[in-house]
Design a protein that fits this description.
Layout: H1 18-22, E1 25-29, E2 32-35, H2 36-39, E3 52-55, E4 58-59, H3 73-90, H4 104-134, H5 137-144, H6 146-160, H7 167-176, H8 182-200, H9 209-234, H10 243-278, H11 292-310, H12 312-329, E5 334-335, E6 345-351, H13 358-373, E7 378-385, E8 399-406, H14 413-424, E9 431-435, H15 437-447, E10 453-458, H16 462-476, E11 482-487, E12 492-500, H17 502-508, H18 512-524, E13 526-533, E14 536-542, H19 546-549, H20 552-557, E15 559-560, E16 568-569, H21 570-573, E17 574-582, E18 586-588, E19 591-600, H22 605-619, E20 627-632, H23 633-663, H24 666-673, H25 675-690, E21 694-695, H26 697-726, H27 731-755, H28 758-761, H29 772-801, H30 812-819
Parallel strand pairs: 5-21
Antiparallel strand pairs: 1-2, 3-4, 3-7, 6-8, 6-9, 7-8, 10-19, 10-20, 11-19, 12-17, 13-14, 15-16, 18-19
Helix pairs in contact: 4-5, 4-7, 4-27, 5-8, 5-10, 6-10, 7-10, 8-9, 8-10, 8-27, 9-10, 9-23, 9-26, 11-27, 11-29, 12-25, 12-29, 16-22, 23-24, 23-26, 24-26, 24-29, 25-26, 25-29, 26-27, 26-29, 27-29
Length: 823
């Protein structure tokens, strides 16, 4: 303390200049200090460069920003833009920040907009279909109101559960939009028909309006409840998918189920209430008959149904033949994983010969960029060559990754890819793989490579692995559809190997560990401190000067301290040899491996992999101890298909139990489930016609959705047959009347569910609709056949197999009992 004040004592030993470092004492000899400048050159020098970058073939610094898993990409991008605006204002003249090199938010925004448009257009088509069938604004309005109410409830439910609004959840709503009105349609149509029947009765025989609405809604409540429950059940397999496909499809399935359940809640609460207040006073109640479209359709269907019921054997036989033909075509389907995304950006991986210097690799990268920029569809490029060892995706100086922004306004993506592959084929000694950002990362997750197919060759000897890998590559080269075929770049690179002479080391008291440490510090350098300059920090590195490490001879002559006192040349303690060795050795499960990778164009992945497996089996003789494993998209597709298939079988069992409980009859349940194979026909035809014959995970989800809708229609039909039989109708009369009365709601529900998907089905080339498009196409195709066959085959089956005894008019009650399908 001094004069009543506390004074802090602070020692400052930090070096501020190069001179401070040079004048630092490092030892004393003979009582005299030895300064660092006496034993070393102290200078400012560059740190080793591990990579370089360019934009549009011009030098640049690329900063990549990645979000945390739960962060919102759009919100985060806006905040980053604000910060970059502030940074730009402080940059010196001539420096600019280009924020348009790669922005994931652009793809997300465009994808969300496209799906919202599909949702909107689908809803408009639903309104048109309903009005054409109902020909009345009140009934149409009551039915359509289910769409916004159901979507609002679904959005609130997702918000409450922490589920975000994205392309997959919006896609689930877009696929469900046509089905959201189904329950309301069924309820409105039945209430409307019962109110009209009640009005046509004599005044003394009429029932109160409230009673009619209640009974009419109650009449269909059981079928729509069970149908909605079944639709929920068929989506359960999605929640058991693992990996990438599970992460992508679970939100879609969740949004679909929540929307459908919300529509059920609306149909059993809001819809009957609106029917009670709006329909009894409607002028259409005074009009006899139905709309022109419905009258016309019923006239055609009555003739068709009469023909069918007179020839049940023929109809059932024709349906069986059609089903067999459908199943026969199933093995000819191609196999795929997920549809290709339309991101508008390419990721090109270019790997040249190992050991290539950074400058040479940079020049090769510039050449590739110039080739890319010469293509009219390429709007810009950005390249990263090499990455530091501590980088999350470290790669050598011989590897480059190029992001390519595309303008696809005048060309299709497939044509652009074909042109670019042909143009880049002139770059010698470089393996080039072309993909898209999301697809590239999916491939990397699935196979560990940047391609959709990975052939992993395992074995004990590295050089034999290389020889066999080249033979595999040559065999796979002739397989149609294979592109970007390459072998993992491996080569023997120059090495300076230091072999310890243990006898000489023992003479001087040098241990192997001490020698290794001395060599590492001398030639690689070691960070011993850090220097601060304002807010920046720089490493202080110690290593031998160029005169002692610039060549093999200098390294041999470099002096090494020994515990016994004298310094000796490194050549005294070790044998220093110039040799060659492998640039890298890859292992998986302890086994040495080398990877042959490829992409696919113009064919499905499954058939290409099968052909590659066959040519390798026939053309490559693997010695003992060597084996091949296959990885990539096809493997995940196979696993996802197996999961969906097995769990769908379990869903079918649950559906059967629900139907059995509803009808107390196994025969009735089986008659309804006939709709499932009938729905296969149109779905498979749609795959062959519009999806190039490729069955992928998205198409499988389409079949799941289709089965739920098809069972709904079967329930409506058979439940009405059973109800009419219970009212005393004979079997044929019940089938004919039930089919005619259910034609309107079944056609409306099928058409609204199907036509609402047209915007998605037509949007396969648009971002955001890639996964939903195959689903929509399968559902559309399946609905066409299942609805038609449901209205033709199910009546024939029920008439033929529902009757268990002769029905006589004078024995109505026994006849009804006998006509019910037996357990």
């Amino acid at each position: 303390q001094e004069s009543g004040r506390e004074i802090l004592v602070r020692g400052i030993g930090r070096a501020r200049t190069v001179g401070d470092i040079a004048r630092t004492v490092v030892a004393t000899r003979g009582g005299a200090p030895v300064l660092l400048e006496d034993v070393a050159d102290v200078a400012i020098g560059p740190a080793p460069r591990f990579g370089t970058a360019s934009v549009d073939a011009e030098p640049a610094v690329i900063l990549s920003i990645q979000k945390q898993p739960n962060a919102n990409t759009l919100t985060l991008t806006e905040r980053i833009d604000e910060e970059l605006e502030a940074v730009q204002a402080q940059l010196p003249p001539g420096m600019t920040v280009d924020r348009g090199i790669f922005r994931q938010s652009n793809f997300i925004s465009l994808a969300v907009e496209n799906v919202i448009e599909a949702l909107r257009d689908g809803a408009l088509l639903v309104v048109v279909i309903l009005f054409l069938f109902l020909w009345n604004l009140r009934t149409t309005g009551i039915s359509v109101l289910a769409i916004p109410l159901s979507l609002a409830v679904a959005v609130l439910a997702m918000k409450g559960l922490g589920v975000t609004i994205n392309t997959m959840t919006l896609g689930g709503m877009a696929i469900a939009v046509g089905a959201l009105v189904d329950d309301a349609i069924i309820d409105v149509e039945n209430v409307f028909r019962r109110l009209k029947e009640n009005r046509l009765k004599p005044p003394e025989a009429r029932h109160p309006t409230l009673s009619v609405v209640y009974e009419a809604s109650k009449e269909v409540r059981g079928p729509i409840l069970n149908a909605t429950l079944i639709i929920t059940i068929v989506f359960l397999p999605l929640f058991f998918l693992s990996g990438v496909e599970g992460r992508m499809l679970r939100p879609l399935g969740f949004a679909y189920i929540v929307s459908i359940l919300a529509s059920l809640a609306v149909a059993v609460t809001v819809t009957p209430t609106l029917c009670y207040y709006l329909l009894p006073q409607a002028r259409i109640m005074e009009k006899e008959g139905e709309s022109w479209l419905v009258e016309h359709l019923k006239g055609v269907y009555a003739k068709t149904l009469g023909f069918v019921l007179d020839r049940t054997r023929l109809v059932i036989g024709a349906a069986a033949v059609l089903l067999v033909l459908t199943l026969v075509t199933f093995p000819f389907l191609g196999r795929g994983f997920l549809p290709e995304f339309q991101e508008g950006t390419l990721v090109i991986s270019a790997v040249t010969v190992p050991g290539t210097g950074l400058d040479t690799s940079d020049e090769i990268g510039r050449r590739i960029e110039r080739i890319l920029l010469a293509h009219p569809a390429v709007a810009g490029t950005s390249r990263r060559t090499g990455r530091a060892e501590l980088d999350e995706h470290a790669q050598g100086a011989n590897a480059a990754e190029i992001d390519v922004r595309l303008d696809l306004s005048e060309m299709e993506l497939d044509a652009v890819l074909q042109d670019l592959r042909a143009a880049l084929a002139v770059v010698p000694g470089t393996n080039i793989t072309i993909g898209q950002p999301i697809g590239h990362r999916i491939d990397h997750i699935l196979s560990g490579t940047r391609a959709s197919i990975a052939v992993k060759l395992f074995g004990p000897d590295l050089y034999e692995l290389r020889r066999l890998a080249e033979r595999i590559r040559a065999s796979a080269e002739g397989v149609s559809g294979v592109v970007d075929l390459s072998v993992e770049q491996q080569a023997d690179v120059p090495q300076l190997r230091i072999y310890a002479d243990r006898q000489a080391m023992a003479t001087y008291g040098v241990t192997p560990g001490r020698l290794a440490e001395a060599v590492d510090v001398a030639f690689a350098g070691e960070t011993v401190s850090e220097i601060r300059e304002k807010q920046e920090k720089y490493a202080l590195v110690v290593r031998f000067d160029e005169a002692s490490r610039g060549s093999a001879e200098r390294i041999r002559s470099a002096l090494v301290d020994t515990p016994l006192g004298p310094k000796v040349p490194l050549a005294v303690l070790a044998d220093v040899r110039e040799e060659r060795g492998p640039n890298t050795i890859s292992r998986e499960n302890v086994q040495r491996k080398i990877v042959i990778s490829a992409n696919v164009a113009g064919r499905d992945v499954g058939s290409v992999v099968e052909e590659i497996q066959e040519v390798i089996r026939q053309g490559v003789d693997l010695p003992e101890g060597y084996f091949v494993e296959y990885g990539g998209q096809f493997e995940s597709a196979r696993e996802a298909t197996r999961t969906i298939t097995l769990l769908s079988l379990l869903s079918l069992v649950l559906i059967f139990l629900i139907l059995y409980k509803e009808f107390a009859s196994s025969r009735a349940a089986l008659l309804i489930m006939v709709n499932l194979p009938l729905a296969l026909t149109g779905g498979l035809v749609a795959i062959f016609l519009f999806l190039e014959g490729e069955l992928n995970v998205a198409a499988l989800v389409g079949f799941i959705t289709l089965f739920g809708i098809a069972v709904r229609n079967g329930i409506l039909l058979v439940s009405h047959y059973v109800q009419l039989l219970g009212e005393g109708k004979v079997l044929r009369e019940a089938v004919f009347q039930g089919s005619m009365e259910r034609l309107n709601p079944i056609l409306m529900t099928a058409l609204t569910a199907g036509l609402a998907l047209i915007p998605l089905a037509l949007g396969g080339g648009e971002p955001g609709k890639e996964i939903q498009t195959p689903m929509a196409i399968v559902i559309l195709g399946g609905l066409l056949t299942s609805t038609f066959l449901n209205m033709v085959v199910v009546p024939a089956l029920f008439l033929r197999f529902g009757e268990r005894a002769e029905i006589r008019p004078d024995e109505a009650e026994p006849a009804v009992t006998a006509a019910l399908p037996s357990r």
